[in-house]
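Hi,

I'm pasting everything inline rather than attaching a file, because the server keeps stripping attachments. The sequence lines come first, and each chain or strand is labelled.
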Amino acid sequence: MQLREPGVCRVDVARGELIGATNRYVKTLADLDGLYEDTVAFDAAKRTLGDSVVYEVTDYKPSANSGDMIIGVTRMRPGKIGREYFLTRGHIHANANRPEMYYGESGCGVMLLESPEGEIRTVEIGPRTICYVPPFWIHRSANTGAKDLVMTFAYPADSGQDYGIIEEAGGMKSRVVDDGKGGWMLVDNARYLGRPASRVERVYASASAS
Amino acid sequence: MQLREPGVCRVDVARGELIGATNRYVKTLADLDGLYEDTVAFDAAKRTLGDSVVYEVTDYKPSANSGDMIIGVTRMRPGKIGREYFLTRGHIHANANRPEMYYGESGCGVMLLESPEGEIRTVEIGPRTICYVPPFWIHRSANTGAKDLVMTFAYPADSGQDYGIIEEAGGMKSRVVDDGKGGWMLVDNARYLGRPASRVERVYASASAS
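And the predicted assembly:
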């Protein structure tokens, strides 16, 4: 049998990149339109910084097959829109019964997790912290520090990403904001709609069908 | 649905441990009887150092279910038996279509990989190196440095370990030894028997049955 060759990559923490990656993508501030609480502040920032990269992902993807794993590095710039920290778009795995591991390399941030039913959890991430995102949790990260937040991650190659689950609900239930005292806190997302039971069931069904 | 809570651990690189682990095991020198080329040197070392820990594994295991991942840290002492570097017992995944990620934290070593058919590969691991072990590769690591080799790892929770595949074949095809010039090299394992086609087929069948 012709086996896949072993892979070798290197995490460049200072650059926030995976050397030896097979894929790279970036999200600019303009790409994140609609995510933030303060739309006036967002529009003002977009006019001057719309093309700025907010986060960059480099990853090593052997294949999309069940039985492979995708490994990568994400680097997020520090910053806020109004009081709300820069964040990733967030997702649940399209094959929802798939986990993800995030591993802090430098900087500090918060992993914001939401169950399909709308329960919120947070995990603070700093250097050498591992956050295990179990199956079925919607997740997004926010950079709550003054420096780049760099994390290494790994997840099964057949996971896929469903971004729509957040958009349909008007965002995640909570937002990660500056508490004005040098730290972060959660506030309710006033635009949050929640999701109907049928949508929740569809998440769990996507897993049992796989 | 009752979801598993998100996990938080921390890699203590200096101690070579995962803080927040759910499991821990150690292998002493005596546990590694039969692995080394130089049995006279091994027996001599065992008399004085038999109880010494050669390597220690701490890991976080949410469950053994498909859809979960196990994350851990391995710490291997530096040392040699004769010219052969300290090594792990090695394994193939019992559900052989499962990969593993190793991530160098400190020290330096070599990941030795063997396909079921007996092809050998090596990957050098140092700090921030990621070695991706694709499905179906037998793998073991050797500490080729003068300090502890510490690696973080992650693999699917339903992988399992089959150690017998190495024992049945009289070890792996190659050994990682001191080249006498400050580096390492591979030499043939004189006790290597290889494995019959039926055994190779059984590896691939274990995957398709899963």
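Chain A touches chain B through 50 residues (CB under 8 Å).

If the labels don't parse on your end, tell me and I'll reformat.
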